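User: I'm putting together a small comparison set for a docking exercise, and I want a reference complex before I start. The sequence is below, and the ligand is nicotinamide-adenine-dinucleotide. Could you produce the 3D structure with the ligand included, as structure tokens?
Assistant: Of course. I'll restate your input first, then give the structure tokens for the complex.
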Amino acid sequence: MATRDTIGVGVIGCGMISGAYLSAAKTFPVIDVVGCADVMMDRAREKAEEFGTKAMTNEEIYADPAIDIVVNLSPPLMHSEINLAALEAGKHVYSEKPFGVDAEDAARVIQVAREKNLRVGSAPDTFLGGGLQTCRKLIDDGWIGSPISATAIFMGRGPETWGQAPFFYDYGAGPMLDLGPYYITALVHLFGPAKSVVAMTKKGSEYRTFAGEVAPQYQDTYKPYDRYPVNVTTHLTGVVEFHSGVTATVITSFEAFAHTHPSMEVYGDQGSMTCPDPNTFGGPVRVLRNGDKREWQDVPLTHIYSDNSRSLGVADMAQAILNNREHRCNGDLASHVLEIMLAFDRASQDEKKIVLETTCDQPAPFPLGMMAGVLD
Ligand SMILES: NC(=O)c1ccc[n+]([C@@H]2O[C@H](COP(=O)([O-])OP(=O)(O)OC[C@H]3O[C@@H](n4cnc5c(N)ncnc54)[C@H](O)[C@@H]3O)[C@@H](O)[C@H]2O)c1
């Protein structure tokens, strides 16, 4: 088992995002990456060689006593199955987003973790980055007074030109479950848990068309320029009401060729703040305060981790295990974020305001003056 100051990690899923995790993991001494696995064994070998770890099977990861946390980087539809298998094997688990593709998925994982006295965590961890920690500090210290409202907007035409585009238009993804976790988690980080959602959602078309490239996993089914089905809504717009009284206008969309909205803004009774893209760790952060004569001020970041630090959430979980405290990217937060995201389609279909059933604690902010790689 891990030594007193190190937590053993096994990574499952060695696809596109795994390099960012395995690279950043090296900057956190609290994490020891014991091995990595993939159903496509050559991918596991390739990453193991690149990052100096061991290629393993999922079963070897579950059985290895040196591994405390399984980091699940598989595609969304596999998340719950792997999360449950890891928990059943007695491992803590940290999953990529979304935390499940439906509420039952997430609830089952939380329940098994509770029964087994194990931890569950989930991406995104970008709200732990220097940009969004600075926004939180400014709000908590009253720089824009009491927040009243916010906007959180992701809009684009969608990744239809990518070879693996069908992934993004299938169950478990779409603009809300794929990108929404960054925006909704950032809002909960800034304002605490939410109370209700009203929304309208739609699908722009029943099919999208491949560009010239088709990723290997789709080559048995599709040729370049074939069309593939859209199985999710692709324009979701609504308002999330927070218990703190803030209302946030949220749009996630794969139906806009271009737009000029900022990613996130917060409007308080003493000023406004523009926040960084919540799918990043850095800035910029700007405020315009009552009396600033309509000039926005750039705010230097108050916190570190402004580079791509995917693994920060895992490192925080590892340190939390050692120090017996709550980890920030926890299952309650992820389940609540998932319920908020799923409420957009529910509100639209049922034509009513959805009162949320889950809740969570507002994640504790990072303290000032942290040293790189040291979480507590
Ligand atoms: N690609 C990105 O930029 C990005 C960014 C942030 C988050 N994510 C999230 O990370 C997750 C993975 O995304 P990705 O882009 O790396 O996908 P990917 O398809 O490139 O990689 C997923 C990997 O998981 C493997 N896999 C599938 N089922 C498995 C199983 N049962 N056991 C072991 N391995 C299995 C696949 O073979 C593949 O190598 C998704 O949830 C995605 O939303 C991706």
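The first helix runs from residue 18 to 25. The radius of gyration is 20 Å.
User: Thanks, that's exactly what I needed.
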